[in-house]
Design a protein that fits this description.
2 helices, two-stranded antiparallel sheet, mainly alpha, coiled coil, single chain, about 90 residues
């Protein structure tokens, strides 16, 4: 006998709940394994994620002190200008 819409929706809900439960169980194991490997190998956050580019300052406005790391859309104070005059050494 063919299932009706309501029966299929209920089966989908049950499968989604089961999938979420399995995901959480697997996630606990994965995180535990990752923590152990990080500890065993002495991995630090920079090695794992790279440097925090938000803290990197490549350009500074001489009057306002505003900064930009060179990533993404340039701020108005540097847009269309020679960036070398704002470069931080």
């Amino acid at each position: 006998m063919a299932e009706n819409y309501r029966q299929i929706k209920e089966r989908i809900r049950a499968l989604e709940a089961e999938a979420e439960q399995l995901r959480r169980q697997e996630l606990r194991q994965i995180i535990s394994d990752m923590r152990r490997k990080i500890r065993d190998y002495g991995i630090n956050p920079d090695q794992l994620f790279g440097p925090d580019l938000s803290d990197l300052v490549r350009y500074r406005h001489p009057e306002t002190g505003e900064t930009w790391n060179g990533m993404g859309r340039p701020p108005n104070w540097i847009r269309g200008k020679n960036r070398e005059q704002f470069r931080v050494d």
